[in-house]
């Protein structure tokens, strides 16, 4: 697959060949769904907690005598049957992460890249470099290119001035190539890869 390369000012910078084994697959929603679920489960805090009957603050004294009341037999007010009593089998702090094979995760990233290429929302940029960390100047260039919700993936290192300039632009994310992931690629409308990112991703996913 051959794609045109552009510069930040909108000019042409030649073209690049993209490997069909990474950018030319038929996207499968089931694979993308599984990888996104794996990613989101890993980021879930899992700090939910309720009090059991041993942790509520009522007295443990027997609330009334065993017999002769005409009611049910009860001990202390901490029982789950009572209002404000302990919760039975409620949530406790835990990790929501689950395993997903490395090969499957790589396959998911390939399908995410292929999905952007198939929909025409993949852009190859010559380089993501800014002479100064000026948000206004970069915002004008991004607006001129028509990027409203975009993810820019650079090579091993992101240019510091470019990253600082992009930090305050709403809807624009910048990641190094090792940070490329399925969730961030799919949640943005446009995927922008620098030539260095293309080389790094092809090396990573081959």
UniProtKB/TrEMBL annotation:
Gene Ontology CC: one annotated term: ribosome
Entry keyword set: Ribonucleoprotein, Ribosomal protein, RNA-binding, rRNA-binding
Keyword Ribonucleoprotein set for record: yes
This protein's record includes keyword Acetylation: no
Any one GO MF annotation of this record: rRNA binding
Protein role: One of the primary rRNA binding proteins, this protein initially binds near the 5'-end of the 23S rRNA. It is important during the early stages of 50S assembly. It makes multiple contacts with different domains of the 23S rRNA in the assembled 50S subunit and ribosome.
Subunit structure: Part of the 50S ribosomal subunit.
Family: Belongs to the universal ribosomal protein uL4 family.
The name this protein goes by in its record: Large ribosomal subunit protein uL4
Gene encoding the protein: rplD
């Amino acid at each position: 697959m051959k794609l045109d390369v552009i510069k930040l000012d909108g000019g042409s910078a030649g073209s690049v060949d993209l490997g069909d084994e990474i950018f030319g697959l038929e996207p499968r929603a089931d694979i993308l769904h599984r990888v996104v679920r794996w990613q989101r489960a890993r980021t879930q805090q899992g700090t939910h907690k309720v009090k059991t009957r041993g942790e509520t603050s009522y007295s443990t004294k027997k609330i009334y005598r065993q017999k002769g009341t005409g009611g049910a037999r009860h001990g202390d007010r901490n029982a789950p049957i009572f209002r404000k009593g302990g919760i039975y089998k409620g949530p406790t702090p835990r990790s929501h992460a689950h395993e997903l094979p490395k090969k499957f995760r790589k396959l998911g990233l390939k399908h995410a890249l292929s999905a952007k290429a198939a929909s025409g929302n993949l852009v190859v940029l010559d380089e993501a470099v800014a002479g100064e960390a000026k948000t206004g100047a970069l915002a004008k260039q991004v607006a001129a290119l028509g990027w409203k919700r975009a993810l820019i993936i650079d090579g091993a290192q992101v240019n510091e001035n470019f990253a600082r300039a992009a930090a305050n632009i709403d809807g624009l994310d910048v990641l190094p190539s090792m940070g490329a992931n399925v969730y961030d690629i799919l949640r943005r409308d446009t995927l922008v890869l620098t030539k260095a990112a293309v080389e790094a991703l092809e090396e990573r996913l081959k």
